[in-house]
Design brief:
Structural class: mainly alpha
Helix content: 55-70%
Strand order of the largest sheet: 1-2
Largest sheet: 2 strands, antiparallel
Strand content: under 5%
CATH class of the largest domain: Mainly Alpha
Number of domains: 2
Shape: flat
Number of helices: 10
CATH topology of the largest domain: Tetracycline Repressor, domain 2
Order of helices and strands: EEHHHHHHHHHH
Length: about 240
């Protein structure tokens, strides 16, 4: 069961500025406010000001701020998955899903802080879960494994996506300072007390990069190895 406001309460209504108020417009405005000012900007009062309407009008579309948070999270999923059409290769399809989800959160890095760990129970999320579990079922996994392994997959993707988005949301000087640490602080450590770091000193600059692709590839390789059915591109015999 969803918590969405009944359709008759979500009719388009004009604001004081003449703009037609709608669920879509409210969510878009919420995303803009979060992008400009951070999650703390998500209040009924600030939304009402930005939309040019009485804050109480928002309750015709959402039960409260948390209901709006779920709608924002679902909108990010919807944007990320728009146009996605899985092919015959379930591994490639899951990889594309992962890349799309991460891109969606990077597009709204300040919203990712609260959006990535919520269960929206809305249309876009339901469609994504249906697709992901369907791909694992097509690989030959039974229902219990398909459900649990999809959770493993999406938690891995969302964890990396949220972390990458959080880093992207940092002020530029903080991001650069963290990057420089790998090529400065870590390069000057004592070889006696830090033999492992000394052994890989020339490679530590790669620690500044996201491990998203490697993590997803490792997980997908493990899933493919455990799959009861063959991947479509594998030859018979």
């Amino acid at each position: 069961m969803t918590t969405r406001v009944p359709q008759e309460r979500r009719r388009r209504r004009p604001t004081r500025s003449g703009v037609l108020l709608s669920e879509e417009l409210i969510v878009e405005t919420a995303l803009r406010l979060i992008g400009e000012h951070g999650p703390e900007a998500l209040s009924v009062r600030r939304l009402g000001t930005a939309l040019g309407c009485d804050p109480s009008a928002l309750y015709r579309y959402f039960h409260g701020t948390d209901d709006l948070v779920l709608a924002v999270a679902d909108r990010i999923i919807g944007d990320a998955m728009a146009g996605f059409a899985p092919g015959d290769d379930w591994v490639a399809a899951l990889r594309e899903m992962a890349v799309r989800v991460r891109a969606g959160y990077l597009a709204h890095p300040r919203a990712a802080a609260f959006a990535s760990y919520r269960v929206t129970r809305r249309e876009n999320e339901i469609r994504a879960v249906e697709t992901g579990i369907g791909l694992l079922l097509s690989a030959g996994f039974g229902p219990a494994d398909a459900a649990r392994l999809y959770l493993t997959f999406i938690d891995t993707v969302l964890g990396h996506a949220a972390m990458d988005a959080a880093f992207q949301a940092l002020p530029p000087q903080q991001r650069e300072s963290d990057h420089q640490a790998w090529s400065e602080v870590y390069q000057g450590l004592d070889p006696v007390s830090h033999p492992a770091l000394t052994a890989v000193r020339q490679e530590l600059h790669t620690m500044r990069d996201s491990s998203f692709e490697e993590a997803v590839d490792l997980l997908l390789e493990a899933l493919a190895a455990r799959a009861p059915g063959r991947r479509p591109q594998e030859p018979l015999g």
